Predict the structure.
Amino acid sequence: MSEHKTSQEPSEIIMTDLYQSAAKIYIRRIRGYFRNLRFFGGMFLFAAYFGTLWLSWGDRQAVLFDLPQRQFHIFGVTFWPQDFILLSWALIISAFALFFITVFAGRVFCGYTCPQSVFTWVFLFIEEKTEGKRNARIKLDQQGLSGLKILRKAAKHLLWVLVALATAITFVGYFVPIKELLADLAQLSAGGWVIFWIAFFTLATYGNAGWLREQVCIYMCPYARFQSVMFDRDTLIVSYDAARGESRGARRRNDDPAKLGLGDCIDCDLCVQVCPTGIDIRDGLQYECIGCAACVDACDSVMEKMGYDTGLVRYTTENKLEGIQSSLMRPRLLAYAAALVLMTIAFALVLIARVPIELDIIRDRGALHKMTSNGLIQNSYLLKIANMTEQPQTFLISVDGLSGLAFRSSQRVQVPGGDAVTVPTLLVLPADLNRLPTSKIYFSITGEEDPKLATTEESRFFGPANF
Amino acid sequence: MSTFWNAYIFGLTGIMILGLMALLFFTRRMPGGTDPEETTGHSFDGIEELNNPMPKWWLNLFWLTIVFGLGYMVLYPIGNWNGLLNWTSAGQLEAETSQHDTKYGEFFARYASVPVEELQANDQALRMGQQLFMINCAICHGQNAQGYYGFPNLADADWLYGGSGDNIETTLIQGRRGQMPAWKDTLGTTGIAAVTEYVLELSGNEHNDAQAAQGQVIFAQMCSACHGQEGTGSTLIGAPNLTDNIWLYDLPDQDLRRDVVTTLTNGRAGNMPAWIDILGEQKVHLLAGYVYSLSN
């Protein structure tokens, strides 16, 4: 049952709206070491996202996820749906990499590399160029409508939509070859679904980076919620050193804070103004903090101006803050690292050893075996041969496992690049060479020009059950 | 749909939507919330929960889903209401089929005018025919078209109804009904035994000469009308050639004599389905091309 506040009269309980509009936060931009890290990291990812699209491989786009053909080209390798297990492994490895980074340094993925953050910083940059710096933006929002205000706002939203549009077209360009896509768009002949997806991603980018911003990180993103399970007392988090900073208060630059009974924090609130999620890091570790270290840059810049040591707000661990020895190399972290390294190596080996052909044997359902008029036991199969390379290949079919087996169908088949063919196959065996009702046999296909393109699959040869 | 069930559906859906709207309306205020440090008052093993308002965009999205739901009810069928879009699953199938026909129609049309015998020269036509065969025909005739007891071997040169391209196509379009009469009442066991020996003689198998001679007499009277004087059969009516030692109702490891006796005693009723309504002209044409290629 709920615990009532017995000291209050029922009429004293105040009711407020359950839903309230989030107060808009005005983020102040700051320069600094971590901002540079974020900038170069983010811009590298940005460039990779937009740039990779334009690379070619032979006569096709280097990275292309061709959904209608169900072929996924990543540079020289073409993956088919049969290779999806590789994708699930890649995702598992990515998940472990994420867990490793979070145990090590908290939510740095969020602050430095998450597309939500990177795009928000880009949109924030546009906002500053059109509406001005932080104080100017606050003033602009407070003043009434004017021609200049409309112009600034319109310019901002227009630029936002353009960036969102470029992002959306790039995204769709990974599925529909970008050069064709742009040509179709220019001639207004793009298909319905293409238009829909471009519109969808434009709206999503514009909405997320322009309007929702920190609401995604605070309310929507599940990673924000389960990060706390992965933190431990030795995780590097952005933290305010309360022991050093308190009690906070303004003072003159040349004053000795110790004499005034003050800590290093001058209560300038700069750390709050630069925070993209709008929190006060001095309140301690909060789940909203995305570890971007903007407050670190802000505080360091102030500390330098005041002539104090930097690092009042810094990356540190809970243990270190309390004066306890903090070990970076701890079992949990090392276990994640080991798992990550092992899985990555295994994954790489599997990729290298992958043979881009596939053989499936489908036995005829109609009959287990059939006797021919000249006393041979006949079994009927369908061989499905998939050529996942992009060049036509010729394959030689052979069978192993039962001596005396002969083919009564073609043993040489040509398969066009990126295609699969069906080869009806008949195997015959002289009745006197058959020893068992069921025998295990192995079909093999070998590339005629490239013998390394080879694979083997197991099947059965059936004969009469009575002897 | 009866009035009751119609009312039931509308009623339940309406109550649900109105209920959700009521939920949003009646829970729009909460106690407290002015102090950001305030907790809800509950303590779970020392873990407490702040009592903060929820973001308004969440509420707006909820309203959006209700509006969407109402719009959906108006546009799409519910109960006896057909919806403004008049959507039906049969209609959707029709639309998709005609879209499919427009898209792939030209592939099939390309081969419609090519004679069956020449279709195998084209790789694509052959592959399409092979695909159709595997889906529709391989169940009975085998993946290698090698046939089985009661299902003809399509890969040899022996044809019940003729093996020309047109013959094969006609078989596919109309289907075939093989009708061998039952002779047990007319001939009796002795008569059947005699005819069996003669049939074995015709096909070059070991036989009893005396009985075969009797069988020949009966054959001339009863069987030659369909199977021909020499027993070579007639592709016009689908009477098998009894001299070629290729048997539809016998397998090499079974007793041929016994099987012939069964055929004569009880008759046979072979049944090849008619594919014209299931597959249509164009696909049947490609199938015929593939089947023809198996023996040529």
Q: What stands out?
A: Chain A touches chain B at residues 2-5, 13-22, 212, 215, 219, 362, 364-367, 370-373, 375, 378, 380-382, 409, 421-422, 424-426, 464 (CB under 8 Å). Residues 1-6 of chain A have pLDDT under 50 and may be disordered.
